[in-house]
Backbone:
């Protein structure tokens, strides 16, 4: 069963879109990180003492003071970056600007990889491996979207300002803070502005980083920052499989060729069977028809119609089961239509294209990595909830590497909509960013 | 049973798209006029002698000589008019140009009505009532389509050149011919370039002419010219009902809101039931799903999805039966989806918009009007077939007025496609246009 705290956190998350003002504790709308099942928080972390020591240290306090002093700069950075369009597959300009910002904060080994990820290294003192801290450059909005930021009182509005430009801004703020405080870490930290996190990007930035790029076998742990407050750790990776399923046929005239197989009827048959699938609620498993399209005119039998579907689960076997069931339905629907109407002019055929493949993964809540992160909440007397999401962290999770997504420390709202925005509240946001900073320093081994 | 001749005519019609070169006798592709059931030709027309007399008269021969002499001008007119875009609801410029051409041929009472039909009168000697001869200005192509005519040997290519710009050109050719020959008619003839014949126009030009315009109660008979050779008389009007059926729901996130009603499943259910409907083959009755659309992204439960459907029959009761069956399916599919999934966030609802309504009609083959037209074929030893179509003539047919669609006299191909074209063959085309001219003169009472 879910605990009180975890349920409250989830409720806050799911309410975030509708009631942003109430969502300080967990501002990430469900539409941004795809939260799945919430797991109960663990008993108090064994690292709580260590977290307390870190957060009461002079150096940490100095860093936090820099977060506060630089808050306006951080907001300005977010505005600057938001106003550079970064549609899926069009992140280059924003990446270039972000790389220059990372360079200004003293990172070395500056690089733009083959996918378009931009990155720079903050060398550690040794013995801590390589930690990646990332936020994604891409937004869900097409290139033509007006991304000019509009300010209204304490709210800033612009598509993409929350998801995930606040993450990019937080990284800069944290870098400036730990640099100013002279905090060193055992780990090398690679700060990354990555591409392809949103739907059509299909995590191609992470796939480059972990499967192909020069750091591919060197990364020991991973944290991505997404728009959310400091109450949750996304340590479960919901897997997804997405298909654009097209039924093709010979087409024809609605009158002259009546009786000919019609791909719309095949699609309807498949869609209806898909809708009848039973899926488990634990691990949470879901499916959806998101898009329908096809045909040329009302009085033509379509040459092609398609549906784009999404299937997800935080269970590997359960994801495979729903995917297998879907894939089994399709040829049956094709056969049924070819049997129901005339195939003299041609048959119905299937063109099923995979358009998304996010692996299932999990970084166990009781692992040292997650417990070091949880310790920060415990030290503050605010235990964190654990949730499953669909983020950049899915890739390292699927490789068995310690990986989570944390809140970037701002309150945002209406993610993925044209009314997307963030609230500006210095005192509150500095506290939130400081939690994330403490978490990074915990796992990176602050000295 | 169908006779040999009628079957051959239909075969030629249905082959026209694939084999334009063979289609001289019946060049109208099924995609242009929506031919339904073919009825056998009647016994030799009682007007055959009269038709023979007309066609062997000096005046008629003089008119035919003018058709031949003016053939290049006619082709030029067709090219000029084709190159003026005339998408559905965008016929004004082409109409203006056509009205100027009609004016040049000496018509009086020039007018552009409220719908955009352009027209001019050729006064008769009296006692013959008012005959309308029309061709439609609109094409199926959107405004952005390249309508520049390309010539390749004896073929001219451009979207809309066949359907129905050849009809507009034929009217001009026939006017010039009968004017030059000094042929008078008992009937007043109103020549019309009309709007809204193609799908989305829903016959609005005819509806204006017959239900609202200044001639509404004065028209005694109607002929429209469409791209086809001289072998068939479209004396049956296939009725159609078209709906854009939208299923709406609360939408939501594919993961966070899984279990919520999804309008795509309701649509699928309705579409599948639609596909199972049994319809009679005599009178020919058909149905189609032509377009599917809806949804915002793969990982959103759609707010709305829709299908656009077409139902047709040349039988009034049969059309109503298939329409009633469709309309009965829709609320059942809505109810089923509302029962199958959660309606906590909102229910599935229906928004069913009629987007096409063409009445069923027929001008009996044994009526004097049709028999006067048939006499021209009989006089030439080439009896005509009777077919049902979906054209401008549907409106006057539905009012019980004598009305048909005749071939404009050119061989065209690939109607409604970007490869639409016409062949240029002077000797053949002049013979074909002369048949149409003779038919008009028969019913208008040439003196």
Residues:
């Amino acid at each position: 069963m879910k605990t009180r705290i975890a349920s409250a956190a989830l409720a806050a998350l799911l309410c975030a879109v509708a009631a942003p003002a109430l969502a300080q504790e967990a501002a990430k709308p469900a539409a941004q990180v795809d939260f799945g099942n919430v797991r109960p928080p663990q008993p108090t972390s064994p690292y709580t003492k260590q977290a307390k020591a870190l957060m009461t240290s002079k150096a940490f306090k100095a860093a936090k003071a820099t977060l506060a002093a630089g808050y306006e700069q951080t907001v300005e950075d977010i505005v600057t970056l938001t106003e550079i369009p970064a549609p899926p597959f069009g992140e280059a300009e924003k990446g270039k600007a972000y790389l220059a910002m990372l360079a200004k904060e003293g990172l070395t080994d500056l690089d733009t990889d083959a996918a378009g990820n931009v990155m720079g290294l903050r060398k550690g003192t040794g013995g801590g491996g390589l930690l990646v801290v990332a936020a994604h450059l891409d937004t869900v909005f097409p290139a033509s979207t007006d991304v000019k930021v509009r300010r209204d009182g304490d709210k800033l509005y612009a598509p993409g300002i929350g998801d995930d430009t606040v993450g990019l801004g937080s990284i800069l703020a944290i870098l400036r803070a730990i640099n100013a405080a002279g905090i060193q870490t055992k780990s090398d930290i690679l700060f990354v502005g990555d591409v392809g996190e949103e739907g059509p990007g299909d995590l191609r930035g992470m796939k480059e980083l972990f499967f192909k790029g020069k750091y591919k076998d060197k990364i020991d742990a991973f944290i991505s920052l997404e728009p959310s407050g400091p109450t949750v750790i996304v340590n479960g990776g919901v897997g997804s499989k997405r298909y654009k399923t097209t039924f093709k046929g010979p087409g024809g005239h609605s009158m002259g060729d009546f009786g000919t197989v019609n791909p719309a009827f095949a699609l309807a048959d498949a869609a209806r069977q898909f809708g009848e699938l039973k899926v488990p609620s634990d691990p949470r498993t879901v499916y959806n028809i998101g898009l329908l399209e096809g045909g040329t005119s009302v009085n033509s039998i379509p040459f092609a119609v398609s549906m784009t579907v999404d299937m997800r689960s935080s269970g590997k076997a359960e994801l495979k089961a729903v995917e297998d069931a879907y894939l089994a339905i399709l040829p049956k629907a094709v056969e049924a239509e070819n049997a129901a109407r005339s195939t003299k002019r041609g048959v119905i055929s299937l063109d099923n294209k995979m358009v998304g493949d996010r692996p299932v993964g999990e970084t166990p809540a009781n692992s040292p990595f997650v417990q070091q992160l949880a310790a920060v909440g415990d030290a503050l007397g605010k235990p964190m909830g654990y949730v499953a999401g669909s983020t950049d962290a899915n890739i390292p999770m699927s490789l068995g590497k310690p990986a989570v997504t944390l809140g970037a420390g701002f309150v945002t709202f209406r993610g993925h909509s044209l009314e997307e925005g963030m609230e500006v509240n210095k005192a509150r946001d500095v506290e939130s960013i400081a939690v994330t900073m403490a978490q990074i320093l915990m796992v990176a081994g602050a000295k």
